[in-house]
Protein backbone atom coordinates (compact mmCIF):
# COMPACT_ATOMS: atom_id res chain seq x y z
CA UNK A 1 0.00 0.00 0.00
CA UNK A 2 1.34 3.43 -1.01
CA UNK A 3 1.46 5.84 2.00
CA UNK A 4 0.75 9.57 1.45
CA UNK A 5 2.98 11.53 3.83
CA UNK A 6 0.91 14.65 3.35
CA UNK A 7 -2.31 12.87 4.16
CA UNK A 8 -3.78 11.93 7.51
CA UNK A 9 -3.61 8.13 7.29
CA UNK A 10 0.01 7.77 8.36
CA UNK A 11 -0.73 9.87 11.44
CA UNK A 12 -3.58 7.55 12.41
CA UNK A 13 -1.28 4.55 11.89
CA UNK A 14 1.43 6.03 14.09
CA UNK A 15 -1.00 6.94 16.86
CA UNK A 16 -3.10 3.75 16.60
CA UNK A 17 -3.70 2.39 20.09
CA UNK A 18 -2.21 5.53 21.66
CA UNK A 19 -3.64 8.52 23.46
CA UNK A 20 -4.77 10.87 20.67
CA UNK A 21 -5.63 13.56 23.18
CA UNK A 22 -1.93 14.11 23.54
CA UNK A 23 -0.70 17.38 22.05
CA UNK A 24 1.57 15.84 19.40
CA UNK A 25 -1.35 14.28 17.58
CA UNK A 26 -3.24 17.58 17.43
CA UNK A 27 -0.18 19.45 16.16
CA UNK A 28 0.38 17.00 13.32
CA UNK A 29 -3.29 17.15 12.32
CA UNK A 30 -3.13 20.99 12.04
CA UNK A 31 0.34 21.11 10.45
CA UNK A 32 -0.86 21.53 6.78
CA UNK A 33 -3.09 24.49 7.62
CA UNK A 34 -0.39 26.12 9.76
CA UNK A 35 2.18 25.70 7.02
CA UNK A 36 -0.15 27.26 4.42
CA UNK A 37 -0.88 30.30 6.65
CA UNK A 38 2.83 30.83 7.25
CA UNK A 39 3.54 30.77 3.52
CA UNK A 40 0.78 33.32 2.75
CA UNK A 41 1.86 35.73 5.53
CA UNK A 42 5.51 35.45 4.52
CA UNK A 43 4.65 36.15 0.90
CA UNK A 44 2.67 39.30 1.89
CA UNK A 45 5.50 40.64 4.05
CA UNK A 46 8.06 39.95 1.33
CA UNK A 47 5.92 41.75 -1.27
CA UNK A 48 5.49 44.78 1.02
CA UNK A 49 9.24 45.05 1.58
CA UNK A 50 9.88 44.91 -2.17
CA UNK A 51 7.33 47.68 -2.88
CA UNK A 52 8.60 50.04 -0.13
CA UNK A 53 11.00 52.00 -2.43
CA UNK A 54 8.21 52.53 -4.96
CA UNK A 55 5.86 53.85 -2.28
CA UNK A 56 8.57 56.19 -0.97
CA UNK A 57 8.94 57.81 -4.40
CA UNK A 58 5.19 58.52 -4.55
CA UNK A 59 5.24 60.51 -1.27
CA UNK A 60 6.12 64.20 -1.93
CA UNK A 61 9.19 65.54 -0.16
CA UNK A 62 8.29 68.07 2.57
CA UNK A 63 11.43 70.08 1.82
CA UNK A 64 10.39 70.56 -1.80
CA UNK A 65 6.94 71.66 -0.65
CA UNK A 66 8.47 74.25 1.68
CA UNK A 67 10.71 75.56 -1.11
CA UNK A 68 7.76 76.01 -3.44
CA UNK A 69 5.82 77.78 -0.68
CA UNK A 70 8.72 80.16 -0.06
CA UNK A 71 8.86 80.98 -3.75
CA UNK A 72 5.15 81.79 -3.76
CA UNK A 73 5.51 84.09 -0.76
CA UNK A 74 8.52 85.92 -2.21
CA UNK A 75 6.78 86.63 -5.52
CA UNK A 76 3.80 88.38 -3.85
CA UNK A 77 3.82 92.11 -4.57
CA UNK A 78 2.14 94.53 -2.23
CA UNK A 79 0.01 97.26 -3.82
CA UNK A 80 1.56 100.75 -3.73
CA UNK A 81 0.53 102.97 -0.88
CA UNK A 82 -1.95 105.65 -1.78
CA UNK A 83 -0.53 109.12 -1.47
CA UNK A 84 -2.62 111.51 0.63
CA UNK A 85 -4.63 113.80 -1.53
CA UNK A 86 -3.97 117.52 -1.18
CA UNK A 87 -6.87 119.38 0.31
CA UNK A 88 -8.28 122.14 -1.91
CA UNK A 89 -7.43 125.68 -0.76
CA UNK A 90 -10.17 127.51 1.12
CA UNK A 91 -12.29 129.93 -0.92
CA UNK A 92 -11.20 133.58 -0.83
CA UNK A 93 -13.15 135.95 1.39
CA UNK A 94 -15.85 138.10 -0.23
CA UNK A 95 -14.89 141.62 -1.31
CA UNK A 96 -15.28 144.42 1.15
CA UNK A 97 -18.51 146.35 0.87
CA UNK A 98 -19.81 149.47 2.55
CA UNK A 99 -21.07 149.10 6.10
CA UNK A 100 -23.75 151.36 7.55
CA UNK A 101 -24.15 151.95 11.24
CA UNK A 102 -27.44 150.57 12.47
CA UNK A 103 -29.27 152.70 15.04
CA UNK A 104 -31.98 150.98 17.01
CA UNK A 105 -35.29 152.82 16.76
CA UNK A 106 -36.24 154.32 20.13
CA UNK A 107 -39.51 156.06 20.96
CA UNK A 108 -38.51 159.52 22.23
CA UNK A 109 -39.46 163.15 22.02
CA UNK A 110 -38.41 165.07 18.95
CA UNK A 111 -36.02 167.30 20.87
CA UNK A 112 -34.30 164.24 22.41
CA UNK A 113 -33.45 162.51 19.08
CA UNK A 114 -29.66 162.54 18.77
CA UNK A 115 -29.11 160.39 15.64
CA UNK A 116 -31.62 159.26 13.03
CA UNK A 117 -31.62 155.63 11.80
CA UNK A 118 -30.55 155.07 8.14
CA UNK A 119 -33.12 155.00 5.41
CA UNK A 120 -34.02 151.84 3.49
CA UNK A 121 -32.31 152.96 0.27
CA UNK A 122 -29.11 153.68 2.21
CA UNK A 123 -28.70 150.09 3.46
CA UNK A 124 -29.42 148.25 0.19
CA UNK A 125 -26.43 145.96 -0.65
CA UNK A 126 -24.65 147.09 2.52
CA UNK A 127 -23.81 145.50 5.85
CA UNK A 128 -25.17 146.68 9.20
CA UNK A 129 -22.79 147.27 12.10
CA UNK A 130 -21.98 149.39 15.12
CA UNK A 131 -20.28 152.08 13.02
CA UNK A 132 -20.15 153.39 9.49
CA UNK A 133 -17.18 152.05 7.43
CA UNK A 134 -16.38 152.84 3.81
CA UNK A 135 -15.69 149.61 1.86
CA UNK A 136 -13.32 149.01 -1.06
CA UNK A 137 -14.80 146.55 -3.59
CA UNK A 138 -11.62 146.74 -5.76
CA UNK A 139 -9.26 145.76 -2.94
CA UNK A 140 -7.09 142.64 -3.61
CA UNK A 141 -8.38 139.43 -2.07
CA UNK A 142 -6.09 137.68 0.39
CA UNK A 143 -6.43 134.40 2.19
CA UNK A 144 -4.95 133.95 5.65
CA UNK A 145 -2.84 130.80 6.08
CA UNK A 146 -4.71 127.88 7.58
CA UNK A 147 -3.53 127.12 11.10
CA UNK A 148 -3.69 123.95 13.14
CA UNK A 149 -6.44 125.28 15.39
CA UNK A 150 -6.36 125.28 19.19
CA UNK A 151 -4.36 122.52 20.79
CA UNK A 152 -6.40 119.71 22.33
CA UNK A 153 -6.71 120.12 26.07
CA UNK A 154 -5.76 116.83 27.75
CA UNK A 155 -7.41 116.37 31.12
CA UNK A 156 -5.10 115.12 33.85
CA UNK A 157 -6.75 112.05 35.40
CA UNK A 158 -3.56 110.53 36.83
CA UNK A 159 -3.25 109.85 40.56
CA UNK A 160 -0.65 112.03 42.34
CA UNK A 161 1.24 111.20 45.51
CA UNK A 162 1.09 113.37 48.58
CA UNK A 163 4.88 113.92 48.52
CA UNK A 164 4.99 115.95 45.29
CA UNK A 165 1.65 117.77 45.38
CA UNK A 166 1.57 121.57 45.69
CA UNK A 167 -1.75 121.88 47.54
CA UNK A 168 -2.50 118.75 49.58
CA UNK A 169 -6.11 117.59 50.00
CA UNK A 170 -7.61 118.22 53.42
CA UNK A 171 -10.81 117.60 55.35
CA UNK A 172 -12.92 120.73 55.92
CA UNK A 173 -11.83 121.97 59.34
CA UNK A 174 -8.63 119.91 59.41
CA UNK A 175 -7.69 116.36 60.37
CA UNK A 176 -8.82 116.83 63.97
CA UNK A 177 -12.37 117.38 62.78
CA UNK A 178 -12.06 114.35 60.49
CA UNK A 179 -10.92 112.11 63.34
CA UNK A 180 -13.84 113.42 65.36
CA UNK A 181 -16.16 112.41 62.51
CA UNK A 182 -14.61 108.92 62.45
CA UNK A 183 -14.88 108.57 66.23
CA UNK A 184 -18.57 109.48 66.18
CA UNK A 185 -19.47 107.10 63.34
CA UNK A 186 -17.06 104.15 63.75
CA UNK A 187 -18.60 101.12 65.50
CA UNK A 188 -15.89 99.31 67.45
CA UNK A 189 -16.42 95.50 67.64
CA UNK A 190 -17.47 94.21 71.05
CA UNK A 191 -14.24 92.34 71.67
CA UNK A 192 -12.53 92.64 75.05
CA UNK A 193 -9.01 94.06 74.91
CA UNK A 194 -9.16 94.89 71.18
CA UNK A 195 -6.83 97.74 70.23
CA UNK A 196 -4.51 98.68 67.40
CA UNK A 197 -4.42 100.67 64.17
CA UNK A 198 -6.20 100.12 60.88
CA UNK A 199 -4.26 101.52 57.91
CA UNK A 200 -6.34 102.57 54.88
CA UNK A 201 -5.66 104.29 51.56
CA UNK A 202 -8.07 106.18 49.31
CA UNK A 203 -8.11 108.63 46.42
CA UNK A 204 -9.38 112.17 46.94
CA UNK A 205 -11.07 113.03 43.64
CA UNK A 206 -11.22 116.44 41.99
CA UNK A 207 -14.68 117.02 43.45
CA UNK A 208 -13.53 116.03 46.96
CA UNK A 209 -15.21 112.61 47.05
CA UNK A 210 -13.32 109.53 48.30
CA UNK A 211 -12.90 106.57 45.94
CA UNK A 212 -10.79 103.39 45.64
CA UNK A 213 -10.86 102.86 49.42
CA UNK A 214 -8.58 99.98 50.42
CA UNK A 215 -7.53 98.47 53.76
CA UNK A 216 -3.75 97.96 53.84
CA UNK A 217 -3.75 96.38 57.32
CA UNK A 218 -6.37 95.76 59.97
CA UNK A 219 -6.58 93.98 63.32
CA UNK A 220 -9.41 91.61 62.45
CA UNK A 221 -12.96 91.30 63.80
CA UNK A 222 -14.31 93.39 60.89
CA UNK A 223 -12.34 96.53 61.76
CA UNK A 224 -11.24 97.04 58.13
CA UNK A 225 -14.73 96.65 56.69
CA UNK A 226 -16.08 99.15 59.22
CA UNK A 227 -13.39 101.67 58.23
CA UNK A 228 -14.44 101.37 54.57
CA UNK A 229 -18.09 101.92 55.52
CA UNK A 230 -17.29 105.10 57.46
CA UNK A 231 -15.05 106.53 54.71
CA UNK A 232 -17.67 105.94 52.04
CA UNK A 233 -20.09 108.17 53.99
CA UNK A 234 -17.46 110.83 54.65
CA UNK A 235 -18.24 114.44 53.68
CA UNK A 236 -16.37 115.79 50.67
CA UNK A 237 -12.76 116.88 51.17
CA UNK A 238 -10.98 119.91 49.79
CA UNK A 239 -9.22 118.43 46.69
CA UNK A 240 -5.50 118.73 45.97
CA UNK A 241 -4.11 121.11 43.37
CA UNK A 242 -1.13 121.03 41.02
CA UNK A 243 -0.18 123.93 38.75
CA UNK A 244 -3.40 125.70 39.66
CA UNK A 245 -5.65 122.78 38.66
CA UNK A 246 -7.49 120.26 40.80
CA UNK A 247 -5.99 116.75 40.62
CA UNK A 248 -6.59 113.29 42.05
CA UNK A 249 -4.42 112.49 45.08
CA UNK A 250 -3.67 109.19 46.84
CA UNK A 251 -4.09 109.57 50.61
CA UNK A 252 -3.06 107.10 53.36
CA UNK A 253 -4.50 107.26 56.86
CA UNK A 254 -4.15 105.30 60.13
CA UNK A 255 -7.24 104.83 62.34
CA UNK A 256 -6.64 103.93 65.98
CA UNK A 257 -9.04 101.30 67.40
CA UNK A 258 -9.52 100.67 71.13
CA UNK A 259 -12.42 98.77 72.61
CA UNK A 260 -14.04 99.83 75.86
CA UNK A 261 -12.88 97.71 78.81
Outline the structure in words.
- The protein is α/β, with parallel strands linked by helices and 261 residues long.
- The protein is 29% helix and 16% strand.
- The protein has 5 helices and 7 strands, in the order αααβββαββαββ.
- It has helices at residues 9-14, 23-58, 62-74, 175-185, 223-232, and strands at 99-101, 127-129, 159-160, 195-204, 210-217, 240-242, 245-258.
- Strands 3, 4, 5, 6 and 7 form a 5-stranded mixed beta sheet that branches. Strands 1-2 form a two-stranded parallel sheet.
- A hairpin with a 2-residue loop joins strand 6 (240-242) and strand 7.
- It is flat, with a radius of gyration of 53 Å.
Structure summary:
The protein has 261 residues and is of the alpha/beta class. It is built from five helices and seven strands, in the order αααβββαββαββ.
Helix and strand composition category? alpha/beta
The DSSP helix count reads 5
**Count of extended strands:** 7
Distance between the termini: 126 Å
Mean model confidence by pLDDT: 75
Return residue spans where pLDDT drops below 50 for at least 5 consecutive residues: none
Percent of residues in beta strands?
A: 15-25%
The biggest sheet amounts to: 5 strands, mixed
Q: Any idea what the shape is? A: flat
What is the percent of helical residues?
Answer: 25-40%
Estimated radius of gyration: 53 Å
Order of helices and strands: HHHEEEHEEHEE
